[in-house]
Amino acid sequence: MSRRAVLWIAFVLVHVGVAVLGWYQPNAPMGDVYLVYERWSTAWMNGGYIDPSTYGFARSQEYVGFVGIDVAWVYPQLAIIPMLLARLFIGIDGYTPAWAILVTIIDALAFAVLVGRGRSRGRVTGAWFWLAFIALIGPIGLYRLDTVTVALAIAGGLWLVGRPWLGSALLAVGVWMKVWPAAIIAAAVIALRRRFAVIGGALAVTVVTAATVAIAGGGSHLLGFVGDQTGRGLQIEAPVSTFYLWRSALMLPDSAVYYNPNMLTFEVSGPMLNEVIAIMTPLLVLVMASVAGLGAYKVWRGASFARLFPPLALALVLGFIAVNKVGSPQYQVWIVAPLVLGLVLDRRRWALPSLLGLVIALLTQIVYPLMYDGLMLTHPYVVPTLMLTLRNIAVVALFVWTVVILARVPMHRRVRAASASPVAPAVALADGH
Question: Which of 47, 189, 212, 343 is a plausible cystine mate for 126, CB 3.0–4.6 Å?
Fold first, then answer.
């Protein structure tokens, strides 16, 4: 049996196993799908209305609106597309299985791009890593919108060298579903010689999206997701919340965990909370700008694309996670794409960071959904708090490690950089051999 056949068998087993696991784990790991994705997509299909009785309420029809168009939304506008596409399979056994089927199909398309003919060891290693990550992180690796953007980011990242317009367009579609793929676009603009093609592909998707939303009457809500994010409190899973979480777990005064019904998340409260919230967004901007600046300096000094792009992309993605006041467990799936690209280009160099990535995935599943009920309390239990702390330490450690790798990327004289051949990275990323 060929390596490619074994990979595809593993792909099916992992996706089916994780999809089924979601029905048996505690704390509603599939909750976003049937609580919000189905509700939003139903409203789009029914003139903005839903029947509350479907969701356990006795009232008559309720106007939810066309999210992102006539009401502000926490997500960018293209996020509604996979939610609507899942309805194509709703007749099989309801919306939640339909979502799992859609995600599996999308993953399969990106997986086919990654594996190619199964002859590249780097691509095969990246494929095994992706499957292992899905298995270790559990149901949130399938039952969240983020997993759709991961597939887009993997395929788009692989095509950046050989087909930069297409690769950038796929990444931009991901940005207009969840913002995080912008980190990979930024890394490509900095590291790739054909940066104007990258900018062009992303700009084309942005213009079409903005024009479509404006024609539909949603111009005033085009960037509504930005305001929703900047106005949020400290979510319990965010690394910055660890201090307050431990204060609450140890029953210290003025610290607690509470539920935010507007964002459907659990957040922390404690001393100087407003001051911490106020500095988090500027700090995130500062960190991201510093990482991007370091990458730009490396390019200016002649660093090669193959050595620079993976750590730069991963550092920017991890910056979004490590220095963020929002920290949903599904955010951890974002690291899959840059780690897969790193393994494709240099599997030996990226073996250890990828191993730490798998540790992060496992700890994330232990925290959510397995121990999450121990955190959803005014005073969380110590063991779940410890598990989340270890996960956050691993995330910050991987971020620091990646920045060190980025700082150590070798530089050459600019004249050598100008004449350097792009053949090696082009073959690694653009060819499935």
Answer: 343
pTM: 0.94
Mean pLDDT of 352-361: 98
Percent of the chain residues topping a pLDDT of 70: 92
Backbone φ and ψ of 345, nearest 5°? -80, -35
Alpha-carbon distance 154 to 232, whole Å? 29
138: left (phi over 0), alpha (psi -120 to 50) or beta: left
In whole angstroms, give the CA distance from residue 246 to residue 263.
23
Q: Which of 180, 175, 243 is nearest to 209 (CA)?
A: 175
Q: How far is CA 383 from CA 240, 252, 365, 375, 425, in A?
A: 19, 17, 14, 9, 45
- Report the pLDDT value the prediction gives residue 262, as an integer from 0 to 100: 76
Per-residue pLDDT at 186: 98
Count of residues making up the chain = 433
pLDDT at residue 430 is higher than 80? no
Q: What is the dihedral of CA 267, 270, 271, 274, to 10 degrees?
A: 20
Q: Report the distance separating Cα 292 and Cα 229, nearest Å.
A: 22
The residue segments making up the domain with residue 53 are 3-414+423-430
CB 126 within 8 A of CB 340: yes
The answer to whether 233 and 325 have CB atoms below 8 angstroms apart is: yes
Taking the C-alpha atoms of residue 399 and residue 314, their distance in angstroms, rounded to an integer, is: 8
